[in-house]
Structures
1.
Amino acid sequence: MPVLCNSCAEKRAVLKRPKTGHSLCKECFFWAFEEEVHQTIVAAKLFKPGESVGIAASGGKDSTVLAHVMKLLNERYKYGLELTLLSVDEGITGYRDDSLETVKRNQQQYELPLKIVSYEELYGWTMDAIVKQVGLKNNCTFCGVFRRQALDRGAIMLKVDKICTGHNADDVAETVLMNVLRGDIARLRRCTAISTASEGDGVVPRCKPLKYAYEKEIVLYAYFKKLDYFSTECIYSPNAYRGYARTFLKDLESVRPSSIMDIIHSGENLSVKEGVRMPVQGTCSRCGYISSQPLCKSCVLLEGLNRGLPKLGIGKHHRFHEKILSQQPFTEKEEKKLKSVEF
Ligand code: SF4
Ligand code: ZN
């Protein structure tokens, strides 16, 4: 006998919600999913009427669902937001070029303006060229640091008040785990925040409207809505450590689906013991971007690339900052150390 929807008790259920275990019909699932995102936005006061918001769009399932739901809720509940899609082109042939085509189609489907900023125009380096120099071990360090700044620069060009990103509950739980595993207290404290305040000039506030949405539900939503998204993994994705955290989380979820939410709640309620040293935020003396060191991570990585010393920004090399700032050459011994990368 077909199972009836637990919510409307009229239509046939087509899915079991991963988050609650309820059997729902398509329409009731759409409604529940959208309402939960709306409640998240309202409860955390993520937006104010009249604000202009950049939606970080990669063409993947999370950001495609985010763009779709933001447009829908903006109209349904009259948020009064001006929405724009903001994409970063890392310069990864065979991956980002294809996913950007998806974003361009989304732009047409959702009738939203689109701005693309590229690593090549911002830094003079594509990820393809970076991987050629640094190999496949530390490439995501470069890419992650550059992307963060690229989104800010794009947002400033667009003059948006805020950026929203497609981070979902699984991503947040995974980041909590990663920061526990690394003992990164400063990040652990920040990573569960649903929105970041403006941290200074050059940094645009960010928020995560899908923070409490399970990845599995995002996939179901995209599937049943027949959204147009790109599902291939990055060709340079080696991040083994994060992979372990992800697998561990998925294993926990299969035994107890609430694990994802429980880990987020644990992260949200952690408090840092008094006296723990936290990095003091200042600004980069070269580019003015937020940094707890004389030079921001992005400038150090870039200097390393431009000097052919890719290890400069990997690990802690703060003692080299003065040398970089005063354009002093490195000694032969230092150069040797900073050149050797494991591929
Ligand atoms: Fe960049 Fe690494 Fe993500 Fe690929 S997997 S887009 S290289 S951060
Ligand atoms: Zn800088």
2.
Amino acid sequence: MSKALQRARDFEAKYLPYTRSELPHFHVTGGIGWINDPNGFAPYKGEYHLFFQYYPYDTKWGPMHWGHVKTRDFIRWERLPAALAPDSDYDRDGCFSGGAVELPDGRHLLMYTGVRNVRRHDGSIESFQTQCIAIGDGVDYRKQPCNPVIDSAMVPEGNSVHDFRDPKIWREGEAFYAVMGNRSRDGSGEILLFKSSDAQHWEFVSVVSSCHNQYGRMWECPDFFPLDGKEVLLVSPQEMDAIGLEFHPGNANVCLIGSFDQKTCHLMRQSVQAIDYGLDFYAPQTLLTEDGRRVMIAWMQNWETSTCKQMELRFMGQMTLPRELSVKNGRLYQNPVRELEQYRGVRIDYYNVLINGETSLRGISGRCTDMTVTVRPGNENSMYKWFRLYVARDGEHFTLIRYRPDTNTIKVDRTHSGFPHDIVNVREFPVSVKNGVLKLRVIMDRYSLELFVNDGEQAASFVLYTPETAGAVSFSSDGSVLVDVEKYELEIK
Ligand code: FRU
């Protein structure tokens, strides 16, 4: 094992025991230090492994390692020692994002981007990105002598060798495929498809999709998979311009749905939408479960706010709750993995509660909860203008979820959540409400709120650093509204 990897593992062994009490209850973190993108999210020998961009030594981004956890049910995770460290010439400045696959002989293959920075004469830094592999047994991995397996020479003519990263690998029959992000001649993103018979020798197949500066610039962290008769491409664009309430500016997330043209190996787009409408969501990756579900996990953070943390915490960055995906009527739907329901404890419910003004309901509170609130007009003539759901509330703090039927929009506002940073704390997005019935499923953990609207038609993720003692919930409306509430404590030991 290299010195760099040994050092990371020693550091983990020494300090991880101290941070346990400050971690979320069921969302993945690095345990200590910094994490960003999920990597290598894939089944291996009957379990699901998840790696992540990781810098154990600080709560800021640094030379990228791969941290490692695994799970059987997406809720309880077992921590494994760091898997990769930047210790070879071709990845000396970082082991960037990538994927994983089980080889036919049972070994576990990781494919990632090796980064090598070179200082130019003028003092600026040029980064070279190539694709590399490491093979192991689910705990220890050996970088292969054939690295890099896809080097700069294989980038299509005119495209960037500096922005060429994040291979997502999968196996299809006898062949391996990988998609990765690249920057084309016009400076904007392109997703490239490569093919191999042994995961070592790769050939370029096609450009699956190009950005043409329409949805951001560089496209990072692609994932590409068939789902419900469609082909789905997930990308994380940099330098996005806002488009209505659908896409927010900056580091955004985009889902392209269409069909795959077998001749050109190109995605024929039919629809484009945001994946998640919250403040904190980036670089999602998916896997296929044994029972055929497409499950997605993402970094629940945003680059723009990645320097804003709660000072005392010794970890920075967490993953979303894994979500089951489906495509209906040309839209991507997502719902929490069904395994979460096994952790539902005490249930409290209310039906047909009339809200007119502000109300709280006995027993409806908590911070590690799975709560569904169904809202509908109180009577046929009810013309309410807004409905508000306050969560994570105490005398000082609250986070607000507001629905306006006239504009059909939801606004989530964490301005008063106790996050002491002058950043964007509000996100508003359109929803489609049929027959006046709106369903809000709110999953809360110690530092997060994830909202699923109308059975997964929209999802929105938010980091909250509100003290865990702030657990009150209240409902309010300026007109008459009827609500049903079903709340479970989540018991995750
Ligand atoms: C996306 C990203 C990837 C890269 C990694 C580096 O968040 O910029 O493109 O591989 O983070 O940590």
